[in-house]
Design brief:
The structure is a homodimer of 411-residue chains. Chain A has two domains: 2-211 and 327-408, Aminopeptidase (3-Layer(aba) Sandwich), CATH 3.40.630; 213-325, 2-Layer Sandwich (Alpha-Beta Plaits). Helices cover 34% and strands 22% of the residues of chain A. Chain A is built from twelve helices and 16 strands. Chain A has helices at 9-19, 37-52, 97-112, 139-144, 150-155, 164-170, 197-201, 239-256, 293-308, 332-345, 359-363, 390-408; strands spanning 56-59, 65-69, 79-84, 121-126, 186-192, 205-211, 213-222, 226-227, 262-264, 268-271, 277-278, 281-290, 316-325, 328-329, 349-354, 369-374. In chain A, the strands form three sheets. In chain A, strands 1, 2, 3, 4, 5, 6, 14, 15 and 16 form a nine-stranded mixed sheet that branches. In chain A, strands 7, 9, 10, 12 and 13 form a five-stranded antiparallel sheet that branches. A two-stranded antiparallel ribbon of chain A has the order 8-11. In chain A, strand 1 (56-59) and strand 2 (65-69) form a beta hairpin. In chain A, helix 3 (97-112) packs across helix 12. The longest helix of chain A has 19 residues, at 390-408. Chain A is elongated and about 80 Å long. The two termini of chain A are 17 Å apart. The interface between A and B is large, with 62 and 62 residues.
């Protein structure tokens, strides 16, 4: 019974604490941007730990790191787990790195108990998941999965004009292995939820069966800037009032597709943005998310209707779709192994949709994949205040352990 | 019949064109900030023109300039006219200076025809009306009228830390005369409307009987910033959606008090203002205007109700009133002289409320005052595109001529 083996919760928490020093900030968070020196320190530490446990590490052309614990049968496709070690600027201590270090803890626990799996178990640390230093996000798992061109990825540059290729070489993580998917039996990414649902519902573990599709837009609303004192209400073309009407319409779209739909305006820019001038122009972002493509299409249609309604106010508007990521359906067999492992452990669980993008979303394109979520306090993430409790970290790692062992022992 | 005398429209337009070179911008506007070297050039030119026409100029401690055309009887209270020569940054060629130069044109026309009035006629050029370089606006007419302390006004500083007192001395316009109202028979300020009403209704002249009272506010709406992908709609505290609801409520307040009421949100600041983060906070300005104090109070009460409604969304909010300017009721006799002059000239007219603040609003506190508006194209002002037609300039100056002559001949 795999449930008899438990990961070493103290050891796991210690590795998390050690890791939080790489790029640690005054307020207890981290700034560990992809391929920065802080990222290098973290990578070096992972290799050191792997070595101490007897594991080697392969680094590919994109700096993705693969640590292998060999199974009995090298002819069977391996099982992969892991996440990313980079962070947002002023980010938290768990986003990404928790999945890497919990994976390491699984390998160590297998060592502790002398367990030999049928299949190789591979721990991965993906490069530049956050997209904070180099856009787009999930860059290197994207290359590895064939979704993003390698040359394109290597040529992405940060705000100082440093390319991914240069940054990889600068920190010594431009590996020689091709960044290309190999056949895998299963892949699991363990991650903090980054949302409030699990904590709010007091659920131990989320089983992620879908990741949301996303449409990103930019909308420009054009009115006419005018003196706020001399321009009567009926002669105004107030872009901000139009924007307000539009914002409430977008909110309604989100509610209409609850609980899985999301509709968000996060960025707003008002022109001329002066106290006594009727706003002449508003530029804003819009983001729609839903796990089903057909629903996302319906949301898109409602968004277009909300834009069109601005003509009732004689406002001009220009809606541009900036990007479209289709929804991801994770692998059913992968999901079932997680559900089984949670049940054996006696934890509470619920099926979940990932609202955020993850490396696993790209990996699912080339290998059977699923994700495991643990709660995080108040859903706060991408923030120095990001927080999890040691018990949550332990639960998630135990589920990962049982799930990986199950998959790795399938013949 | 005074209507037989007409101002010299070509000469007036020429002075406007000459003046637009002082601080003239590439796009045909002006940047002639108060007490700048560009302002000094304009002031020097006014004194030169006055001298050529045989008039002297007194400058007071605040740099206000008074050009006197003596009447027959020095014991009678004079009649005052004028406006301001400073501009907004990238402002227009007519805001303020039109009233000064039309006043000069009236004096010249009286000279042309050898008319001697009963009372002295005084042309004024007020300092720092715009408030663009030194806050608050209408600073020097405020001192002259006793509404603002002289020491306070002189100590106001620009963004470089230069005080009004220093700037006055630097351009040689720190006069020796006390800045203090003297008894006046009547005062008139001719100005462009800075709004769209006259042009839209094809009316030649606006007779301004009121200026609006104003309340300025700042509102902070506090929600909770959250990941736009992982936070379900029902668990959001979206400060921007609350702001949108509030914005439409403010717009309704304005419409409810139409045609004279104004309700405007001009300035908005969203935090963190990131595409995929639910906004946690919105800071905005609110401005309410109405010519009647009781109505302004009602609007204020409705505003507070709109703020209170944000609690339905579990949002916190903090409304601060930054300032309150009471409405101004102009002098009935002054208004009637304008109406009579327009009727004699055969122009079309309508009574108007000034939505903007003007030097005349302060002068009314100490002397019988009224204002004359001419149209401006599309109501555009505080903008390089500000535009009037020579005919409009001519009409306004003719009305000013007849009005002033009427007042100055009253015994």
């Amino acid at each position: 019974m795999t449930k008899d083996y438990c990961i070493n919760a103290k050891r796991l928490w210690h590795t998390l604490e050690v890791f939080s020093t790489f790029g640690g900030t005054e307020n207890g968070g981290v700034t560990r941007l992809a391929l920065s020196d802080e990222d290098r320190q973290g990578r070096d530490k992972i290799i050191q730990w792997a070595k101490e446990d007897g594991f080697g590490c392969e680094v590919d052309e994109l700096g993705n790191m693969f640590i292998c614990r060999p199974g009995k049968n090298p002819n069977l496709a391996p099982v992969l787990t892991g996440s990313h070690g980079d962070s947002q600027p002023l980010g938290g201590n768990y986003d990404g790195i928790y999945g890497v270090l919990a994976g390491l803890e699984v390998l160590r626990t297998l060592n502790d108990h002398g367990v030999q799996t049928e299949r190789d178990l591979i721990l991965v640390n993906w490069t530049n998941e956050e997209g904070a230093r180099f856009a787009p996000a999930m860059l290197a798992s994207g290359v590895w999965s064939g979704a993003i061109e390698k040359e394109y990825a290597l040529s992405r540059s940060d705000t100082n004009g440093v390319t991914v290729d240069q940054a990889l070489k600068a920190i010594g993580y431009k590996g020689k292995f091709p960044s290309k998917a190999r056949p895998l039996h299963a892949c699991y990414e363990l991650h903090i939820e980054q949302g409030p649902i699990l904590e709010q519902e007091s659920i131990d573990i989320g089983v992620v069966h879908h990741a949301m599709g996303q449409n990103w837009y930019e909308l420009r609303i054009q009115g006419f800037a005018a003196h706020a004192g001399t321009t009567p209400m009926n002669l105004r073309l107030d872009a901000l009032c139009g924007f307000a009407q539009f914002t409430l319409a977008v909110e309604r779209i989100g509610h209409r597709f609850a609980p899985d739909g999301r509709a968000t305006i996060g960025m707003v820019q008002v022109t001329p943005n002066s106290r006594n001038v009727v706003p002449g122009e508003v530029l804003c972002s819009v983001e729609l998310r839903h796990p089903e493509n057909s629903a996302l299409d319906e949301m898109h249609a409602l968004l277009e209707a909300a834009v069109k309604a601005l003509t009732d106010r004689y406002l001009k508007s220009d809606l541009k779709r900036l990007s479209h990521y289709p929804p991801v359906v994770f692998d059913q067999a992968c999901v079932q192994r997680i559900e089984g492992a949670i049940a054996e452990r006696g934890y509470t669980q619920r099926p979940m949709v990932s609202g955020a993008g993850h490396d696993a979303c790209y990996v699912q394109r080339v290998a059977p994949t699923a994700m495991i979520f643990i709660p995080c306090v108040k859903g706060i993430s991408h923030n120095e205040e990001e927080k999890i409790y040691p018990k949550w970290a332990e639960n998630g790692a135990n589920v990962l352990f049982s799930t990986l062992l199950k998959a790795a022992n399938e013949k």
